[in-house]
Fold:
Amino acid sequence: MGTNRIANGEWAVDKPKVVLGVSGGIAAYKACELLRRLTESGHDVRVVPTGSALQFVGAATWSALSGHPVSTEVWSDVHEVPHVRIGQQADLVVVAPATADMLAKAAHGLADDLLTNTLLTARCPVVFAPAMHTEMWEHPATQENVATLRRRGAVVIEPAVGRLTGVDTGKGRLPEPGEIYEVCRHVLQRHSLARGTAEADLSGRHVVVSAGGTREPLDPVRYLGNRSSGKQGYALARTAAARGARVTLIAANAQLPDPAGVDVVHVGTAVQLREAVLKAAPEADAVVMAAAVADFRPATYAAGKIKKKDGQEPEPIALVRNPDILAEIAADRAREDQVIVGFAAETDDVLANGRAKLERKGCDLLVVNEVGERKTFGAEENEAVVLGADGSETQVPHGPKEALADTLWDLVVPRLG
Structure:
């Protein structure tokens, strides 16, 4: 495989053009899976590794998987000016993994190899997927570099928490390639639909999203719950991250993979969800309560499994009210310009009940949808009406839950202070 020619041949005219930058971290091997997902879904991908990245994955691998020659140098094929052309022609640049060194170079505009030159010439969306040790990620210099890149409109997704190199565990792990791919797909889609004008309009913002359904235990085996899968809340978290936000996702019993670039807090009951929301909400610009929170919980918890007794009817189960989290955070906002969004799952008189709930809860926006055994819960698609405290009413037609999520963020952004 030739490693000295990067600009040989043209980009495919009928495919989105993606530059996959790979910097020198042990997580470079995971970028092979990201590259596979991008190419198999119809993207034309050119890999631009750093010299250090080639210590982990060789140029022959990148060439074979992408179908393009690979180089790290600006001096290869100088007549075709690759250090300018690649960035100019790309529809998306994604750097995965992005090391602390790469984030620093990008933030300060350094251009000492082909990847950093490409970042300077790119006029398309740029996504960074950081991966490093926890101490490096948390260092003030790295955090300042990340803030600078986000301020300029780049999407810097939060690293995952988990096993790092050696025995170390903490925040700094590269998110799973499938989740990074979803961020890239969404960024490309928004950029395409907006004809190149889409921005990371939630950059610099912190949003809190709840998802899933709470479970209220009766005994060690049984619980009161609902049919919520968490898919709509996870779509809200993913789209917010792709639009540049720092996202805290509070997930109640959702059996879904953690979205890339999202801090996930797992909870079980309504009381636990309340505690997590009240902890995260004070620093949030927006709080979206998409979780299906149980209105009631058993008044008592049986320490042992409740047994069936022959010839006897079961004892009635006494219920008590759960806290009204949405009304609580709407009434006691961290600041006046904080945006609070609620969800109303209704089975009849949908809009009438939704309007009454909007007034009762005191939130800024309320997403109202009809639910049932075969409607909304667990499905990949949704339809809703978004009611605003200002009297607005936005219809969201039947379609992917991601589309509803984007529509909701479109309504939230202009309401942010």
About this structure: The first helix runs from residue 31 to 40. The CA atoms of residues 104 and 304 lie 56 Å apart. The longest strand covers residues 339-346.
